[in-house]
Specification:
Thiol Ester Dehydrase, Chain A, 5 strands, homotetramer, 5-stranded antiparallel sheet, alpha+beta
């Protein structure tokens, strides 16, 4: 697969405790790596951290939490594990893009890569997360603001095809 | 959904650290609950633990590990989160069955339920894991032995339909 | 060490993902097992869970969380790992007692045991947690109510001696 | 506390899932951050990763694993939590030094700091880990080679004083 200009390449460290007793990154730990990439891509640092030089994400989604009006929840995920990943001191690169920008939902597709594979030819995981924006109090879906939809278009890309 | 006689209902404790900062079981932690259910369903205790009274699983899959000839690896997973799960001191019930017994692969479908929902009407997760049996040295798929296939038929059931 | 009548023996399941790549329960995962035991010992199930038959803990500490006036925070921990623990399908028994009931603090001592060692002669961990009760808003220490101190006396026991 | 020249300052990312339901880094997750720092400080990347530009650690300890003759195991840990740590997109700095280089053991002391506190005046954790080098087959302690002891002297520093 060629490098796609719209994707975000997020470096995510692998922890020793992500490995299971077979010495491979555990299947659920891989889902955690996707989560870290998603947070780095779409949720802002705190004002204090920005003041200290933290870099704001390229696009901002509502995070929820105390006092929030909107929250983003995970509706579904799917993931394929084509190869087993060992301990990488240099971590992984999670390549992330939006394969669908819906009315109240966003679909992120991912490839989990290593630094020696910039073309993304041998991913360790291929994955997808559907996120839904909700009203934090009522728990009901909320339409994505047009301004947010416009800013997210910069990260749009074609959907992955899954085998199963 | 009616209770299906072929399913396994595996009680799985929820840990405090499965919760994220919003007070809900994290999306990746839910994948860990599935893994615990799968291990309880299909992998045997050690001989020492059996001697102490541990109950063998209803069907045994090859686990891999040092000296093993066969191993079972996760090829893919998918999961939907219809409702958010808080801290449950009584844990969850993972209802598990085999929706496909293939040549070298097994597909487990799951509902994550609570004890007050024996009918499985309001699951907290609906999920599927495709497992592939491999030769532990070569890493190549291995055909499931007929005897194992026969014993696994007792847990066969219809596949879940996923939305996305 | 003889069984002490004041101790609480809390069964805590071991998860597959508690193991690290050497096949042993990871040092930080062991700290999680202590936490699960502490929660089972001292924090109550929700009213809904009690209605479903959940068993209240023998003594209740303030948990904190939204709307709480008091919270219990961890001030310090220490742990020794005399032996390495593998995957136990029957989990561990965390033996827990209070080695000190202070003005605003409680000290819990623990032995992590297996079911085949009711005398506690070969623990997998020996540990201690100092908890401090605080005012949830101000973050300042709060004196333990006398009624709570009295009920906690039932779990008082002698302190462990640590090597380092 | 003044900056000590012998210490190693290891940046360690904080994950979203390190937070518990109160929005703070969980007490056991903090122990994981120490582990990540220790691994970065003392265990080498794989030859493949070195070839890709990974930086070797300033001193190397035996890691164990398949085929190893020596392994390093954790004998004990202690940790104090003076302040609660929230989600830091810029992670933490784990300041690490060796407070004791024994015959068969090493003691690492740590301060967990944030980037805005280079002087280490307001640590989020103060901790200590005692590691023992063992023969991987026999499980018995092994004397640290003199060459290793010499190279580790560069990281020697005074021991922390703990309160409890």
């Amino acid at each position: 697969m060629a490098v796609m200009p719209q994707t975000l390449d997020i470096p995510v460290p692998v922890r020793w405790t992500d490995l299971d007793a077979y010495g491979h990154v555990n299947n659920a730990a891989m889902v955690r790596l996707l989560e870290e990439a998603r947070i780095a891509a779409f949720w802002p640092p705190s004002p204090e951290q920005l003041a200290l030089g933290a870099i704001p994400p390229p696009a901002e989604l509502p995070a929820g939490g105390a006092g929030s009006e909107l929250a983003t929840v995970i509706a579904s995920q799917r993931i394929e594990y084509p190869r087993q990943l060992g301990h990488r001191r240099d971590g992984v690169i999670v390549r992330l893009w939006l394969s669908r920008i819906g009315g109240a939902s966003l679909t992120a597709d991912y490839l989990v890569l290593t630094r020696d594979d910039p073309e993304g030819e041998a991913p360790y995981a291929r994955a997808r997360t559907v996120m839904v924006m909700i009203d934090a109090d009522a728990g009901t879906p909320v339409r994505l603001p047009q301004e947010l939809r416009d800013s997210l278009q910069a990260f749009a890309g074609p959907p992955l095809a899954f085998r199963d």
